[in-house]
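Sample A.
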Amino acid sequence: MPRWRPEDVNAAADVIAGRLAALGIPVDVHQPEICLSVPLSASVRAGGKSYRAKPPSSSLPVPQGRSAKLVKLQANPKALRSYNRDIATLFGGSIRSLEEVRALVAGNIVVMSGFGNPALTSLIEEWGGVGLIAVNPGVDIHWGTCTTIWGSPDLADLPRKPKIPVVAVNNPDGQELMALAEQGGEATIFTEMLEGWFPQKIPVVTIPGSVEPEKFALVHGHYDSWDVGVGDNATGDATLLELARVLWNGRADLRRSVKIAWWPGHSTGRYAGSTWFTDRFALDLDENCVVQINCDSPGCRWATSYHDTRAFTESAKIATQAILDVVPDAEVKTLRPPQAGDYSFNNIGLPSFFMLSSTMPEHLRKEKGYYDVSGCGANIAWHTENDTIEIADRDILLTDIRIYLLSVLRVANAEVLPFDWLATCDEFLATIAQYADASKGMADLSAARAETEALRAAVEKLAQAAPAARNAAILRLARILVPVNATREARFRHDPAYTVPPLPTLAIAAELPQLPEALRRSGGVELMRGQNRYVAAVRAARQLVEEAVA
C-alpha cells in the first residue's frame, strides 16, 4: 500500500518551499481543501484463494466485500491504457453490440485485461456491472485512478463518483481469475479507502517580467507520487526547481512573467490541485496566461526519444523546435494531448504543450518486452514500488531541463506570441473533411467548412497588425479555439476524464452511419446543435482577427 498520507504530501511541499527559500526565491504556498481518495488496502477472494490487489483512487470502498459471479471481457490489446469509451476501440470487435455487453455484464464482476481507468469504470457501471478487476500486463500491480470527475467535485459532478469497487491485480493472478470466470466462478472484492476533503499545499513561484509583467507563462507539474515516485514525478519536480533558479537569476531579461507551480492531488484527487488553481485564478488565467507547459516524468533512464511529445497544433512548432535545438538528431513527433495529465486549463482556452517528456525509443521498449505505460519514460516501474532512484538518469534529465527552459524562454520573451493558428485552421479543416467522409453523405458540414476557411483567410492577414494587436488577437483566439477543439463543457467547467475527440461537437457526424435507424434523427439534431456552436465560435474568432487587422 502507499507509504504516505495526505499530511505527508504537505511535508513534501515544505521541502520544495525550503529549497526555493534557500535559493532566495519568493514562493506563495496556497493551502486549499481539495477532495482526495487515498487507497488503503484491497484483495480479491475467489476459488478458495486470496489474491493481492490494489484499488485505484476513487474506487468504491467495500471493506466488508462485494460478491458476484465473474465474467470475462476480451480487451483490445491496443487499448490497454485507452481512455476511450467506444466499444469497438475497447474490445476490438469481440463485443458486437451494446445489448450484448449489457446482457453479459449486468449483475456481475467483470475481469479483463488493462488498467482500471475512468472510461472503462464508468462503462462497466453503466452496463450494470457490480465490480471490476483490471488485469495489469505484468508481474507488478500499478496504482491509478478510476473516476471521471476532474478535480474536486461540484454538485453536478457528484453523480459520476464511481459506485462500484475497482481493483487491479497482476497478470499471473489475473489469468487465474479469468480462467475461473470461464468456469462460471464467483469472486469477492474487498477495498478500503481514505476519502474526504484535506488541506493540501500548492507552492507557486512568480518570476516577474520586465516589459509585460502582467502576462505570464505557467509551467507546472505534480509533486505527489505513488510510493517513492522518482520518475513520476520527482524528476519533474527537480526540473521545475532548476527552472525557478535559472529564471529567477535571469529575471531582468524576461519580457513576460513566468509562474511555476507544484500540484498535489494528481492521482488521488484526479488533478484536484491544478483544478483548484484553475478555478481560483480563472479570471487571471483568462486575461493574462499566454501558455501552460506541463512537466511530468522527464529525465528517466533510456528515455532518449521524443516521438510521443504532446502539443496542441498551434504549439507544436515551439515544442518541436526546442527539442531539435537541444537534441539535433532527436526523433520528434507531436500528438494531440489526451484527456489526462494536469491539463486542467482546456476549458479556459490556454495554448498548451508537453505532458510526459522524453520516452524510450519504441524499438528499445519492444526489445525489453515492456508494455505501454503512462509515464516514467516508458519504464514499467511507473506507478509501482519500483519507481526508485535507478529510474532517473542525470544526463537525460539535464537534456530535458534544457528543452523546458528553452521553450519557456521562447514564449516568455517573444515580441509576438509564437502560436500558429494557421496550422490549427488546417487541422480543423482536415477534421471536418474526415467527419464528412465518415458520415457517408449523412452529414452536411459545409457551414463549418466555409466558416473555417474564412477564419483561415483572416488569420493569414494577421501579420499585418501591430505586435500589440497581434498578441491580443492571438491570445483571444486561444480562448475560443482551444475549448471548441478540446472540450464539451462550457468554459470554466471541467470535462470528464475520458477521451474528447477533435472538434467534439461535430464528432457525431462520423457516428451517424453506425447509429440504429431509430436514433439517426436524434443524431442529426445533435449535429445541428453542435455545428451551430462550432460555427458561432469560429465566426467570433474571425471577427476578432478582422478587428485586429483593421
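Sample B.
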Amino acid sequence: MQLDVMYHRIKQNWSYAYDEKTLHIRLRTKKNDADTVVLHCGDKYGWEHTNSSVPMLKWATDNLFDYWEAAIQPRYRRTVYYFEIRDKDEVVYMLEKGFLEEAPPVIYEGLFDFPFLNPIDVMTPPAWVKDAVFYQIFPERFANGDPTNDPEGVLPWGGTPSPTNYFGGDLQGVLDHLDYISELGVNAIYFNPLFQATTNHKYDTQDYFKVDAHFGTNEKLKELVDACHKRGIRVVMDAVFNHSGHTFPPFLDVVKNGPESQYADWFYIREWPLEVKDGIPTYDTFGFEPIMPKLNTANPEVREYLLKIARYWIEEIGIDGWRLDVANEVDHHFWREFRKAVKSVNPEAYILGEIMHDSMSWLQGDQFDAVMNYPFTNALLDFFAHARIDATEFSYAIQRQLASYPRQVNETSFNLLGSHDTTRLLTLCKGNKDRLKIAYLFELTFVGAPCIYYGDEIGMDGEHDPHNRKCMEWDVKKQDQSLLTFFQTMIKLRHEHEALRTGSIRFLPQSNPQLLVYERESANERFLIAINNSDAAAVYSLNADYKWVDALTGDNMESGNGRFSLPAFGYSITKVKM
C-alpha cells in the first residue's frame, strides 16, 4: 500500500462533530489501495474499558483517492484513535506520529486525539436550509409593479438589456407575483442588492440603511418579507460589505477632504489624490472598478457601522439571512464578529458567502453557514452543458467536493447552475432544453439547497452580462409551460422525500460513459435515478432484489430482464416499493 498518500488530521473535514453526540472520522487512501479500514477508538483516560473497533465505510471516491468514514458517539465526548488499513495480506496501522506494522502496544502515545466534543464548537447551520429550494431574483428585471418609482428614461418591459439601462423592476412587482413563486414550489428567495445605489445591479452601495428608491421603500420591503413569511418563504438579501459605492457619503468626504477626512482610514488609499492612472485607481477597489472602493474592515468604526447594518435588516425588516458579496476578500476577524452579531439577533439566520474556491477556512462554525457551491456548478456544467467529461469523471468531481466539507456543510451548501454573474444555462446548453432539464434534475435530487435563477424555469436564455439579466417573461404564450411543469414536479418531489434532500448518495458505474446512475437513500426511503446525457438511447438495470416504482407516476417498474431503456437526454426516477 502507498503510505505517502494516506491522509488524516483532526478537525476541519477530517474529524468533526456532526452534532452534540456524534463525531465523523474520515481517512483518505490511494484509489483501490485498501480493501478494509477499521477505526480503533476509545477514551484516552480509560481505553481498556471504552475501546471499540468500528469498520469504516468507503463512502466516496475520485480519480486518485478513496475516502473512508465512520460515525461514532464517544461516551464521554472525547476519543483517541488510530486506523487499521488492510489490503489482501498487507496491514498497516496509522497513528498521528506515523505508521506501524503492528497494533500500537502503548495506547496513550502518538494516537490521533479529538480532545473534547464541546457543543458550542459544533457547526450548526440553520436547519431550515436543508429543506430550502431557492429562487434568485435580480430585482430590476423581475417585474415592474409600481410605475411611479420608475427611473428616469425607463424602457418598455422586455427590451434589450445593457449595463446601464432600466426597465423598472421593483418590490411591488415581486409582491404581485408571489402566487407564481409559491406555485413554482420554492420556499426561499435570494435577492440581489436592494440598497440605494447608482447602477441597475446595485453593487455600488450609496446608503446601506435604505431600499433603493427605484425598488420602493423600507416599508414596502417589510410588507414583502411579511407576505413571504405567511407563505412559508424565507428571504435572503445580498450584502456588499467588501466595498461601497463611489457615492457613499464617507467616500465622498474622502474625495473632498483627502488625507484630512475623518473617513480617510475607512478605505485603502495607496496614493493621494484619489484618481485613476492607466486604468488603475490609486485606492483599493473591487477588481479595478473606481466606483467600488474597498472598505477597511479592520477599522473599528467601519466594523461597527457594518455590523449595525447586519443587525438592522434582520431586526427591523425580518429578513432570514445574508448572502455576502466578495466574501473571501474580507478579513476573517470581521466575519467572526459578523456571525456573532447576526446570530445574536436571529440564531436561525443563514450566512452565505460568495466564494468560488475551497472554502474550509470560512466553514468551521465561526464564520459562514455555507458558500455558493461553484465547484458543484462547474462540474455540472462540464458534464451536462459542455459534455467535456463523462459520467464517471462527473461522479468523481461530485464525490471529491463532498469529501471537502463536513456533512452539515454539504447539507446546506448553496447549489446553483447559473446566476446574474454567469451565462444562462439554456444558452450554455445551446438551446437544448432537455440538457437543461437533466442538469436541474441532478441539482434538485442532490444534497444541499438548490437555487433556480429566475426565468430558467420557463426557458429564458442569455449570454453573459448584460444578456443574462433580461426582463422576466410574463407573457404566458412566450413561456415554456412544459418546462415550468417539469420544475414544479421536481420541486414537489424533493419537498416530499427526505432522501432526496439529506439522504446518502452512491454512484453506480455504468459501461455507457454518458449514463449517470445514482442512489439516494435515507432511513425509510431509497431512490435510484438514471440520467442519459447523450443524444442516443441508453439502457440501465434495476436491482432485482427490490420492487421498484416510478417515483413520478407510481407505476410498477417491471421488465422481463430487469433492463430499461432511456431515450436521448431522458431520465428515470424510481423508488423502492416498501
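B remarks: Residues 515 and 532 are 5 Å apart (CA to CA). The chain has a mean pLDDT of 96.
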